[in-house]
Amino acid sequence: YSLTYQVEEIERYCMENNLQLLHIYEDRGLSGATVDENGLTVEREGLQELLSDMAYQQVRRVIVLNTSRLW
């Protein structure tokens, strides 16, 4: 899925479900994470920002078009 398509679909979902979209975390031109013997390595600034915000309980919901887009 293109980034534009994902954003449009998520915006539409939020409107249809009366959800306020406060922030979009994105990593343009990047995909996936690396898993090796030391665990998960995330080299995506947008995903790192999301994980940090979640750690500080600044995120109530995460909406993705498909969970495969996270990894």
Quick structural overview:
With 71 residues, this protein is mostly helical. The protein contains two helices and two strands. It has one domain (3-66).
Please explain how this structure is put together:
The protein is mostly helical. It has one domain. 35% of the residues lie in helices and 8% in strands. It has a two-stranded antiparallel sheet with strand order 1-2. The longest helix is centred in the N-terminal third of the chain and has 14 residues, at 3-16. 1% of the residues are buried. The model has no long low-confidence stretch (mean pLDDT 84).
Q: Unreliable segments (pLDDT under 50, ≥5 consecutive)?
A: none
Give the distance, in angstroms, between the N- and C-terminal Cα atoms. 13 Å
The helix/strand class is mainly alpha
Total strand segments? 2
Rg, Cα atoms, Å: 13 Å
| Major beta sheet, strand line-up | 1-2
Query: What's the helix count?
Result: 2
Helical residues, percent: 25-40%
- Following the backbone from N to C, one meets helices and strands in this order, namely HEEH
**What is the overall pLDDT average?**
84
Biggest β-sheet strands, sense, barrel: 2 strands, antiparallel
Shape: globular
How many domains is the backbone divided into?
1
Strand content: 5-15%
Protein name: Recombinase family protein
Domain Resolvase/invertase-type recombinase catalytic: 1-71
GO molecular function: DNA binding; DNA strand exchange activity
InterPro entries: Resolv_N, Resolvase-like_N_sf
